[in-house]
Specification:
With 137 residues, the protein is α+β, with helices and mostly antiparallel strands. The protein has a domain at 59-126: Trehalose-6-phosphate phosphatase related protein, domain 2 (Alpha-Beta Plaits, 2-Layer Sandwich). Helices cover 31% and strands 23% of the residues. The protein has helices at residues 21-28, 54-60, 63-78, 102-109, 133-136, and strands at residues 14-16, 34-37, 42-44, 50-52, 82-85, 90-93, 115-119, 122-126. The strands form 2 sheets. It has a 4-stranded mixed sheet. Strands 5-6-8-7 form a 4-stranded antiparallel sheet, with helices on one face. A hairpin with a 5-residue loop joins β3 and β4. The longest helix is centred in the middle third of the chain and has 16 residues, at 63-78.
């Protein structure tokens, strides 16, 4: 989908997501809009130029790989828990875990040294850098 050439807008539309930037832009597939992916740590501008938060990338590059590998082994033993290693975050989805295992899952993601962001039936570890989707846009 494209916006008509020469179309004038008071505000340019934007797609904001916690998903990795490549994932959200390929799912939506609209040219001529801003994309903010990875909770605002990555952007694609109207001209297609890519920007990323280098400070955040440096803070998580190796530590999140290690965290994801360690937690993946733990969750394999628990069962019905999905770990999603994103570029700027590690998300733990436990909506399918049995109720008696939820406390074990939540306890295992605390104290990893990054910012926790709980949501219903999921937990996300992000860089300690305070940035939001609103800040990015």
């Amino acid at each position: 989908m494209h916006f008509p050439a020469g179309m004038r807008m008071a505000h340019w539309p934007a797609v904001l997501s916690g998903r990795d930037l490549d994932d959200v832009s390929s799912c939506v597939g609209v040219d001529g809009v801003w994309y903010a992916g990875s909770h605002g740590f990555e952007l694609i501008g109207l001209d297609g130029a890519h920007q990323q938060n280098e400070e955040a990338l440096g803070a998580v590059a190796t530590s999140f790989e290690r965290v994801a590998a360690e937690r993946r082994e733990r969750f394999r033993a628990i069962g019905r828990v999905t770990l999603e290693h994103k570029r700027f975050a590690v998300a733990v989805h436990y909506r399918n875990a049995t109720e008696e295992r939820v406390d074990t899952v939540v306890a295992s993601v605390h104290g990893v040294g990054k910012r926790d962001e709980p949501s219903p039936e999921a937990w996300c570890k992000k860089p300690l850098i305070r940035a939001t989707l609103r800040d990015a846009v």
